[in-house]
Design brief:
Layout (H helix, E strand, L loop, with lengths): L8 H5 L3 H20 L4 H8 L13 E6 L5 E5 L5 E2 L14 H12 L4 H8 L3 H15 L1 H4 L6 E10 L19 E9 L4 E8 L4 H8 L8 E4 L6 H6 L3 E4 L7 H6 L1 H15 L9 H16 L6 H11 L11
Parallel strand pairs: 4-7, 7-8
Antiparallel strand pairs: 1-2, 2-3, 4-5, 5-6
Helix pairs in contact: 2-4, 4-5, 4-13, 5-6, 6-12
Amino acid sequence: MPRRENPYAGMVEGLTDARFGEPSSVVAARRCREQVGFGTFDGAAEAWKPDPRCPWCHHGHNHRDSSTPSGRQRWLCAECGRTHTALTGTVFEESKKDFPTWAHFVRLMCHNAQIDLAAEVCGVSHQTAFEWRHGVMATLGAYQERMALRDRCWIDEMYVEDSALRNTPGYRPMRGLSRNQICISVAIDVHKRPVAVVCGHGKPSGKRVGDALEAHVAEGTTFLHDKERAHNPLIRAVRGTSIAYKADTRDPDYLEGMKMVDSLCAWIRRFIEGYVGMKQEKLQEYLNWYVYLFRVKRADERWPKTARVLRHLMLTDARYRSSRKR
C-alpha cells in the first residue's frame, strides 16, 4: 500500500526560519493539552488557581485588575493594594519559557533524566536546567515533612559514601560503617508511605534516629526492625511496639520480615547513583524528591504524575534563590 503523503509537508518546508517556531509552538501546546489537560500557563491557572491569594500578605479575596503586557490576568489585593498574577511567588514567575516546555522538563525529571539531557531536549542552557531542577525540588521539599507513618512501620539505615570528604586535608579511606559514610534513616509503613532522612555520618545514635524519624511516626506504631539498639529510644518515644529480627542474611525469616524496607533502600540507592556529580549537601533535597515521586507514581493511573507535579508547583508559593551572580 503506497504511503500517504503528509499534506502539511510543503507548508512547513516553505516557512522561513523566523516563522518556523509559530506552528511548532501551537503543536507543542496541543500535545501538552492532551497530556496534562492544558497547553498554556493561563489555562492551567484558570483551572487550578482561579482566585489566587496575594503572595505578599496572603489575603484570600482579590479583584481582577487589567492585564500584563503579555496578556496575563493581573489581580489587585484588597488588603495591601499590591498587584500580582497567578504565577507570582511560584517557580514559574520569572520563566521566559512556555508551559509545554515546563511540562516536558517535569516529565523528564519524573524519569530521573540527567541535567544535560533535559537541557538539550527542552532547548535551555545547562544552568537554566540546573536552576529549574532545584527550584522544583525546593518547592516540593516540604511534602516529606508532612509525611506521617502509622500502624505498622519498617525502619532501617542505609549508607552512602561522602565523596566530598576525598578533597579534604588528611582524608583517609576507612572500612565498614565509618564516619566517611553518610547515614540515611529509612522507614516505610504498611500503607506504602516512605520517609528517608539524612542522619549524619557513621553508625547513628538513638538521638540521631529519633531526630530524623520521630516527627514522621504516629503514636502507637508497631516497628519492624533489625535489633539495632539506636531504634529503641524512638520506639519508646512514640509508645510503639517492637518486632525485632536478628540481622542475618542467611535467615529466611529475617529476609521476609525486612523485605519491605530492604527493597526501599535498594531503590533509593539506585536512584541516588543515577545522579552523577550530585553535591552531598543536596542529598536531602534528592531524597525529598524521591519520596514525593514514590507517592505520586503510585496514583499515576488516577492522576498523571506530570500534571500533579505542575499543579503542585503552581499552587505552592516558593521561590528558589538562584545561584547565578546578579
